[in-house]
Amino acid sequence: MLVYLELIIYNIFFSKTKDYTVFRGHGASVDQLCWNPRNPDQLATASGDKTVRIWDARTNKAAATVNTKGENINICWSPDGSTIAVGNKDDLVTFIDVKTHRSKAEEQFKFEVNEISKDRLQKSLDATSDARIQIADIRKLEWPVRTLSFSNDGKMLASASEDLVIDIAEVETGEKLHQITCDSPTFTVAWHPKRHLLAYACDDRRDRDAGIVRVFGFPSDT
């Protein structure tokens, strides 16, 4: 009965949303994005146009644009929200001061940098066989998983592959709550640190769609 009530709440939430809200400005595809852990109104994006943009989710506009030395493929906030680390295709990681919007340090790696992770405490997961099976059964995929993200309360999992959809499922039961249809494969998804808002960017190859970031979950006007 408890699970049933939770599903009703989620269905009401999704029925009152727009399909998505669009953030425009990048001149090339957005490969990765992440929310500021200390200021959840800020969203940072890494793009192949050699820039990092910091967006204000309240206005849907870029609050800052930082030029970098290469085509960016990954990005991460520091736990205190003061620094953004961004890595490019040449394996150069740049550390950006969020207050000044300028580079304060760089580190060149001799090997491929595929992911940057913030150093923070994580909630431990119960690694039982049943838990593994339950999580694995959330979504049956015929394509490789490109990206996934847990919601801030740990109750929902967003996952995307190359099949042009983003699935949002309940972690405890594996029940599908919503599906977002995309025109192209999804590069990255990220849940808001405090609210049920999902930011995502796709492999948009058409010029008019290049560099677009979308946020699903904003309340509709109706």
What is the CATH class of the largest domain? Mainly Beta
Distance from N terminus to C terminus (CA atoms, Å) equals 30 Å
| Overall 3D form | globular
Strand residue percentage: 35-45%
The number of helical segments is 2
Second CATH tier, the architecture of the largest domain: Beta Barrel
Helicity, as a percent range: under 10%
CATH topology (level 3) name of the largest domain: Thrombin, subunit H
Strand order of the largest sheet: 1-16-15-14
Mean pLDDT: 75
Radius of gyration: 18 Å
Characterize the largest beta sheet: strand count, sense, and whether it forms a barrel.
4 strands, antiparallel
Tally of DSSP β-strands: 16
Note the run of SSEs as H and E: HEEEEEEEEEHEEEEEEE
Domain module tally? 2
Class from helix and strand fractions = mainly beta
Low-confidence stretches: 1-13, 119-139
GO cellular component, one term: THO complex part of transcription export complex
GO biological process, one term: mRNA export from nucleus
Family: Belongs to the THOC3 family.
Keywords: Repeat, WD repeat
Mind explaining what this structure looks like?
The chain has 222 residues and is mainly β. It has two domains: 29-116, Thrombin, subunit H (Beta Barrel), CATH 2.40.10.480; 139-221, Thrombin, subunit H (Beta Barrel). It has helices at residues 2-15, 129-136, and strands at 21-23, 30-35, 42-47, 51-56, 61-67, 72-77, 83-88, 92-97, 102-108, 147-150, 156-160, 165-170, 176-181, 186-191, 198-202, 213-216. The chain has a four-stranded antiparallel sheet with strand order 1-16-15-14, with no helix packed on it. The chain has a four-stranded antiparallel sheet with strand order 2-3-4-5, with no helix packed on it. The longest helix has 14 residues, at 2-15. The protein is globular and about 45 Å long. 30% of the residues are buried. This is Anaphase-promoting complex subunit 4-like WD40 domain-containing protein. WD repeats lie at residues 23-65. InterPro entries: Apc4-like_WD40_dom, Tex1/THOC3, WD40, WD40/YVTN_repeat-like_dom_sf, WD40_repeat_CS, WD40_repeat_dom_sf, WD40_rpt.
